[in-house]
Glycolipid-binding domain-containing protein (Streptomyces olivaceiscleroticus), 206 residues
Amino acid sequence: MPRGRYSLHDPHDHTPLGEEHFHCATGPSGWRYVSQITTPSGDHAGSVDLTLDDLGRPIRLELNAASWQVRGAALDGVTWVRTDPTGTQATEGNVRAHAFTGASPAFLVATARLLRPALGSGAVRTRLVTFAPPVLAPRTLDQSWALVNRTAHSTDNGPLTVDEYQVNDLETGEQHAVHLAGDVVLAAPGIELEDLETPPSTFTEE
């Protein structure tokens, strides 16, 4: 069960945004990721709880930020309920999308797991719903993911395979790289892996 800490920063000006303390685990029915998010001063800022099935589809999502909450799942596309800090207003949303995304590194692992592009086979397109902090405002976006490189590294715990994905925002044309090892993000825009207590888990392919 990987357990560790990511540092989060603005991908454009590198302003520190805080840290995400996480643990995650694979299992016969899928993958679960749980984290607590803190501000640069160490105050609690939110949490993520994401569960995928063995095909990479989100069967349960719970996000908390600034007292806002989102609960969602893959249902008729993706469906979610967003609740305000007072708990008196709840709005439901539904979009014909494939999955969720957001600021957490969990969503990069989840999208790669859902799409599983083959090395050298070109990009796979997907529609996602993102929830932007601090109020978890929903927005639909289109991306394409391509697996452009796979490298094996020797470690004390055996070989570690690192996958490099090229991710394209199909609305803006912006491109960026995401480096994953199993169910851990090694590097991505705005995300750095600062500490990892146990090796990444390896997904079992069908």
Q: What stands out?
A: Residues 70 and 82 are 4 Å apart (CA to CA).
